[in-house]
Amino acid sequence: MGCIRTGIIFMPGTTQLKAKDILYRLKQSNAQSIVTTDALAPEVDSVASECPALKTKLLVSDHGREGWLDFRSLIQSASPDHTCIKSKTTDPMVIFFTSGTTGFPKMAKHSHGLSLRHSFPSSRKVLQLKTSDVLWCLSDPGWIMATVETMIEPWTAGSTVFIHHLPQFDPKVIVETLFKYPITQCITAPSVFRMILQENFGSLRFPTLEHCAAGGEAVLPEEQEKWRQRTGLLLHQLYGQSETGLTCSTPRGSQVKPGSMGKAIPPFDVQVIDDEGNVLPPNTEGNLGIRIKPTKPIGLFMLYENDPVKTAKVECGDFYNTGDKVTIDEEGYIWFLGRDDDIINASGYRIGPAEVESALAEHPAVAESAVVSSPDPIRGQVVKAFIVLTPQFLSHDPDQLAKELQEHVKAVTAPYKYPRKVEFVPELPKTITGKIKRSELREKESSQMQRQ
């Protein structure tokens, strides 16, 4: 909020970033300042010398650290007088790092229009927050959902925000918290609701909870029905991207069609389009497109920072192509079919294969690897690595080596990116030009899971 008021562009980061991730983000963005806590300060210090643009390091802690400014004492000594910068709707406000399939994360840059759009009546209708509401959004602070649902939406409505410093998703702690505190609305990834349903809890009739919403991946109709039976509450789907913010939803009080992610939220004009940008008729599979011509709607991202090629690539005729395959029925309800690329969506975390493959490549055992999504009953998808070993590691114990590689990935990149499944293969399927056919591996993985 301080950045918004002073006109500084901020870039939220997940708490699980490692030195390599931090270095990449600092160098790509040329960030001049970083704010973090004790946990990540050593990681920052290990790469700071490689980031000439970085001038200021702010530490939020009870302890001092050499080379860092003390954020809390600076806040206490700051003047109470402050004049907000007169920002325009079109001025840049925030950059979200979003994973890609053929490289490292892209920087999706948003204007102050992102805040403005989420104060529109059409956006306010989704949760219908009141001043008496207590909202708990379990999204990691690095993602756009946290910015929108833990700050912009409740701030606009004058609601109370509930925050829990959960080191990891623990269904028992989440259920205890919903019983103990007067939380009225809860938003998280579908996998969290799935984890809760898989535990043998005596009662899930929470005393104050009135509304639940899930975003980040598709919600299965069976899960919606189970949640309704156990809690007495409907589970409403939300859909959006780092590039778009909240795009589609089933607003509170409206009809829930199990399995659908709801309808488009104005001012977005959402259509199903083909690869040339032509609008397709209802119940036809195509790409989810958001109309950007003649006028780009408020709240859609400005561009991919420093990447005009990728920015141009997602423009498809008069539309922004989200890369998600969907259908729309006659009533305007949208049905998600899957990603048009290789993004892995595990427990609401979007993971690009290139990031995991790059980490694996640093281990001497790995000659080559391909990373894809694998269906999982709890998380929806998990990361699976197909690995071709170097000759000297062929005789090693496969189970032990798999564990070693998993720990290696956790150590060099954010732990949520590690491959929960590892399969050693003699070779990877490739095109004539030498590109790995990830789609073939995904299909093999899906068909194997179906047979099980």
UniProtKB/TrEMBL annotation:
Give compartment(s).
Mitochondrion
Q: Which cofactor does it need?
A: Mg(2+); Mn(2+)
What reaction(s) does this enzyme catalyze?
A: a medium-chain fatty acid + ATP + CoA = a medium-chain fatty acyl-CoA + AMP + diphosphate
Is the Transit peptide keyword given for this protein?
Answer: yes
Q: Where is the AMP-dependent synthetase/ligase domain?
A: 1-291
> In Gene Ontology terms, what is one molecular function of this protein?
medium-chain fatty acid-CoA ligase activity
Q: Which cellular component, as a GO term, is one annotated location?
A: mitochondrial matrix
Entry EC number(s): 6.2.1.2
InterPro entries given for it?
A: AMP-bd_C, AMP-bd_C_sf, AMP-binding_CS, AMP-dep_synth/lig_dom, ANL_N_sf, Mitochondrial_ACSM
> What's the family?
Belongs to the ATP-dependent AMP-binding enzyme family.
Protein name per the record: medium-chain acyl-CoA ligase
Origin species: Myotis myotis (Greater mouse-eared bat)
